[in-house]
Design brief:
The protein contains six helices and eight strands, in the order βαβαβββαβαβαβα. With about 180 residues, the chain is α/β, with parallel strands linked by helices. α5 links the parallel β7 (about 140-145) and β8 (about 165-170).
């Protein structure tokens, strides 16, 4: 693993973890509710003083989160300007080489707009995604995730964050848990 020198405050840094495209909500209403809840959580994090956002650079929830942070990146308030940083944490070089073209294009466009791209490994190895997820959690104090309870990297990340006493906001099924509707967001 490549050693990284960080120049950001862990207490003002949060990360994202979530499922790939195939496991995200398929219905328009459910997908829109996920997006609205994500925007709400990003805005809440900013209001709580978070200014650095890390994402794992995979297609699906990761890239969706990054796109929404990029939209919010240049927040200008007259009395208190806020600068937001977006950091991609890539598991290995060539990570997107076997993805569908549409996902690769979005990936490279988002990476080009990031403030920093951290690539942890030169080549794929069996634990590189877990290594990436641990890196993000170890360098954050909050996790926003879309986790449906299934096995995989997101579940691993959520459990790891909980073991480190990191604040976890799971927006999957958020509306049932918090009584949120499209109108209240």
């Amino acid at each position: 693993m490549i050693v990284i020198n960080r120049d950001y405050n862990v207490n003002k840094t949060m990360c994202f973890s979530g499922h790939k495209t195939e496991k995200l909500p398929e219905g328009r209403n459910e997908f829109n509710l996920m997006i609205q809840t994500l925007i709400y959580e990003i805005n809440k994090a900013i209001m709580d003083g978070y200014d650095t956002f890390m994402f794992g650079a995979c297609h699906g929830f990761d890239l969706i989160c990054a796109e929404h942070v990029l939209m919010r990146k240049k927040i200008v308030r007259h009395t208190d300007p806020i600068n937001i940083r977006l950091i991609a944490v890539v598991a290995f070089e060539g990570q997107a080489s076997r993805w569908k073209l549409q996902y690769r294009e979005k990936y490279f466009n988002v990476l080009a707009a990031c403030d920093e791209v951290i690539t942890l490994n030169k080549q794929y190895h069996s634990k590189c995604y877990h290594e990436r997820n641990r890196y993000m959690v170890d360098n954050s104090s909050r996790l926003i995730c879309y986790y449906d309870g299934s096995d995989g990297g997101t579940g691993y990340t959520v459990e790891y964050a909980k073991s480190k006493s990191i604040d976890v906001a799971n927006i999957c099924n958020y509306s049932r848990v918090h009584g949120v509707t499209n109108k209240s967001l």
